[in-house]
Amino acid sequence: MQKTIKLVIMLFIVILCTTNLSYSAEKQVLLKTTSTWDNAEYKKLKIKKPEVTVLKIIINVNEELPMHKHDLVNIAYVKKGTLTVITDNQKEITLQEGEVLPELIGKYHYGKNTGNVPVELIVFYVGEKGTPLSVNK
User: Fold this and answer.
1) What CATH number matches the domain at 50-136, 3.40.605.10, 3.40.980.20, 2.30.30.110, 2.60.120.10?
2) Backbone Cα Rg of the chain
C-alpha cells in the first residue's frame, strides 16, 4: 500500500513537472503614450457618458481622405499598407503596416494612401457619447 502511495505521488509530480500550466498567449505593447503624434499632451479627460467606437477604414491606392479634425481621443492601427497623415500646416508623418498612430485632437489633417496596396486601418475612438468621430473642414 505504501509503495502504491509513493508511486502515485511520484507520478503526480512527474505530470506536474511535464505539463505546462501557464498559458501560451503572447502580448506586445503597440502604443503607450500621453500625447498625440505631434506631442500635444492629452488633457485630463472629463467624460460624463463615455462612448467607445471601433472602425475599420479602407483607403484605396492613391486615395486621400478629406481635411478633417477629431474632438475626441482616437488611435489608428495600420493593419495593411502605407498611410501618410498631413496637417493643415503641412506637418506630416508616414506609417507602415503594424504601426500605431495616436491621432491629433482638434487639429485639421487628412490621410492619404502613399503605398501600392489599399490601406486598412482599425481606429479606436473614445469620447463623450454623441460626439462626432470627425468633422470635415
Assistant:
1) 2.60.120.10
2) 24
Rounded Cα–Cα distance for residues 69 and 136 (Å) = 7
Q: What does the DSSP assignment read for 65-103?
A: PPSEE-SSEEEEEEEES-EEEEETTS-EEEE-TT-EEE-
Contact 104, 87 (CB under 8 A): yes
Three cell numbers written together for 94: 508616414
| Phi, psi (degrees; rounded to nearest 5) at 42 | -70, 135
Residue 124 vs residues 10, 13, 24, 39: alpha-carbon distances, Å:
52, 47, 26, 19
For the chain, domain boundaries: 50-136
pLDDT 10s digits, 45-99: 888 999 999 999 999 999 999 999 999 999 999 999 999 999 999 999 999 999 9
Give the angle 119-60-107 at the CA atoms, nearest 5°: 65
